[in-house]
Write a structure and sequence with these properties.
The chain is an alpha+beta fold. The protein has two domains: 259 residues, Zn peptidases (Aminopeptidase, 3-Layer(aba) Sandwich), CATH 3.40.630.10; 120 residues, Alpha-Beta Plaits (2-Layer Sandwich). It is built from nine helices and 17 strands. A six-stranded mixed sheet has the order 1-2-6-3-7-15, sandwiched between helices. The protein has a four-stranded antiparallel sheet with strand order 4-5-17-16. Strand 4 and strand 5 form a beta hairpin. The chain is elongated, with a radius of gyration of 23 Å.
Amino acid sequence: MIQTSDLINLISDLVQINSINSWLISDGHGEAEIATYIENWLSPLNIEFYREFIADRQVNLVARLPGKGGGKSLCIYAHLDTVGCELWKERAFLPRVEGDRLYGLGSADDKGHCALALLVLKSIAMQSNELLNGDLWLALLADEEGTSNGAQQFIKKVKPKAAIILEPNALGNIVVTHQGFGWIDIIVKGKAAHGSAPELGIDSIAYMGEVITRLHHLDYQVFAPNPHPLNGKTVFHTSMIKGGTDYATYPAECILSIEIGTQPGETINDRIQNIETIFHEIRTKFPDFSAEVNVKLARDPFKSQGCELLWNILSDETNKILGELPNAVGENAWCDAALFQQAGIPTLMMGASGENFHAPDEWVSISELIKLGDILEGTIRRFCNE
């Protein structure tokens, strides 16, 4: 069994290391430093591991406990990177414990789960008289908060029989589906002219108002009344807007950045079609309206498939520890689970509770992590020995 003090100490050490995603935040440190810490932590344990360079400041740290043969391989995943901390940078890297909560940047998303996975790996490795039949992989990966380069590289090379993705969630839930998303720029074209010459100018910002109004209608008239039974309402929000040059000139261009979701069975093309329909409606009313869509990043939804064996074992182990069977749930956020499943790796996701993800005073439940460790260790032993 994992000791609470060991878990608190390891999470605290990880929280103190800046691993802010270097794609998301230009001055983020990336994963190199935290990967070095974990390498030093693993070295005395005689466990195989390797560092995988992904891109500038992006590093995967992968460990493997070889099985003796005849069993199934399993991957336990967590991610090393975090989002930024501009709103609480004076305390984000200072872990503190208050009751059952450990506070700090990434404590729940996802350093608490990185620490737990390492301690589970150590627990299994130290019991040399109970070697697993199948290989156990630990994938501590880069860039989940950005473009998922770490997961994309890992799944090209490693093909376990199944994977458990560790991300914060109420313990007792197993995530079997989540939304996809698109980060999209909508560019409305206008025509620059002197502010006193309306016959010459085209106001791109005013026309963007028409777009935003109709996107809002799409959100509350289409998305809100038709939620996915597990994933909830399709995600939509505006993110950033810019346009114009000065007070006295008609704006020649306005750019709106949005995040918009997709549900299982949909792709980003469905959302592009929604936006193009909006453009057509506006153009019917304003013939000089001109706009285009630029998809900056898109990821497909996740729907677990082929996980019957893993589900049965994970469900049974959860019942042993919690005294009740888990719930199959969905998420309206996106995680790397989708990439594992798309690679043909049957995938489930679970984690410990926390709050304030991507916000000041993020925390994770210490007691739920301890229980999750017991669930994972039992699941690993049974699955890898099948």
